[in-house]
Amino acid sequence: MDRTRLQDLLARESVDAERLNPRSKAAYARAEHLFGRVPMTWMNKTAGAFPRYLDTARGARVTDIDGHEYIDFSLGDTGAMAGHSPAVVAEAVQRRFAEQGGATAMLPTEDAEWVGAELTRRFGLARWSFALTATDANRWAIRLARAVTDRPKILVNSYSYHGSVDESLIVVGPDGHGTARPGNVGAPCDVTLTSRVAEFNDLAQLERELAHGDVAAVLMEPALTNIGIVLPEPGYLAAVRELTRKYGTLLINDETHTFSAGPGGCTAAWDLEPDLLTIGKAIGGGIPAGAYGLSADLADRLLGRADLDLVDMGGVGGTLAGNALSVAAMRATLEHVLTDEAFAHMAKLSERFAAGVQQGIDAHELPWTVSRLGARSEYRFASPAPRTGTESEAAGDPELEDFLHLYLANRGILLTPFHSMALMCPDTTEQDVDTHTRVFADALAELAH
């Protein structure tokens, strides 16, 4: 690739973005009372000099304050996988908050049992409890795992993503052993005191770490997502389950992003058997929500422990967790929006999206690949596709990624800002996918000119 041409094209698209979005540019310049000028600092992960500011969002469409409409394949990085403001979820939230009230009354609602039963149907775990984010669900699952095993450490895969969980911010270093993930902010201690790490798809490394006998749980995504989609090799996940049982270690599946694989995530699609499962974002239809599930045996073991204060000081609480509003949103989303039929539609569109990307790659004989996980597809600047998190991180090309993101955004298409990922929702159409295929092909043609 001609890097000089790439830089010239990126500069052109940056100028166009500023010209096309004067109101967003001005709003960003005025935001002097926000840390980093944005509500959350990760909102600065955007191609260009400033983020585009939201005006409206419905279904698979977003409109910014400059009046531009976008086909949204980002969908809140899974948080809006149900589409933006699904009518049935909006109605349930309105009914609960404005008509019934009591959104934070610290009392259970009957909706909670319905949601728990539905999560059991989908994922197989027998008992459920609720959080407001998957990060919190992961933190609580970790504490439960430590309590029941009386072991101190948690093992994760290098460059996996589990929110801001301290124990997960560890990667495999050049010497093959664990080290702090670069850029970690304000670590409370050396992460190797709390955690072990192994590369995804590396069973030998996993067994080496489990053999120490101090790992309470393996916390893993069944497929890596936030570092780019990395799919498991044949037999890998079954072997992980065998090794965790061999060494008396619990297995936690984090399905927050891999929920895209189907109605029951990878756990159902691939017939997995975790001891715990965590999920967030998507199940609330846009309202903050999360959950963790436990096997019946594990739940009974924990509830039978008189020494564990699971009611007050057990670290598995939060006065807003399981509130009536978020539970009502979860029920509406799971019952009426992210249904089995919706997932079939979304997966078909994702397959069409991946095929369109592959056409562009083949047309220019690029050393790139496209990976797909159900309703989620992503193009990677590497061939063959990375098989570990460290390989995936090394395959990044920020300059090329910024160009493609800006090129697409300037023509009405949004990808997830953290990488080149596209997610389908129930409102996404074949025409939306084909629009991306055409614009993506135009971008590649300009690069090859």
Textual characterization of the structure:
40% of the residues lie in helices and 15% in strands. It has 449 residues and is an alpha/beta fold. The chain has 2 domains: 188 residues, Aspartate Aminotransferase, domain 1 (Alpha-Beta Complex); 251 residues, Aspartate Aminotransferase, domain 2. The longest helix has 24 residues.
How would you sum up this structure in a few lines?
The protein has 14 helices and 16 strands. It has about 450 residues and is α/β, with parallel strands linked by helices.
CATH class descriptor of the largest domain: Alpha Beta
Rg calc: 22 Å
CATH superfamily descriptor of the largest domain: Type I PLP-dependent aspartate aminotransferase-like (Major domain)
- Spatial order of the strands in the main sheet? 4-12-11-10-9-5-8
Sum up the overall morphology in one term: globular
Number of discrete domains: 2
Please tell me the CATH architecture of the largest domain by its name.
3-Layer(aba) Sandwich
Sheet of most strands: 7 strands, mixed
As a percent range, the share of strand residues is: 15-25%
Arithmetic mean of pLDDT: 96
CATH fold type of the largest domain: Aspartate Aminotransferase, domain 2
The secondary-structure class comes to alpha/beta
Unreliable runs, pLDDT <50, ≥5 residues?
none
Helix content: 25-40%
Q: What distance separates the N and C termini?
A: 10 Å
Indicate the topology.
Blueprint: H1 3-20, H2 22-30, E1 54-58, E2 61-64, E3 69-72, H3 87-100, H4 110-123, E4 127-131, H5 134-149, E5 153-157, E6 170-172, E7 178-180, E8 195-198, H6 203-210, E9 215-220, H7 236-246, E10 250-254, H8 265-269, E11 276-280, E12 290-294, H9 296-303, H10 324-337, H11 340-363, E13 369-373, E14 376-380, H12 389-394, H13 398-409, E15 413-414, E16 421-423, H14 430-448
Parallel strand pairs: 3-15, 5-8, 5-9, 9-10, 10-11
Antiparallel strand pairs: 1-2, 2-3, 4-12, 6-7, 11-12, 13-14, 14-16
Helix pairs in contact: 1-13, 3-10, 4-10, 6-7, 11-14
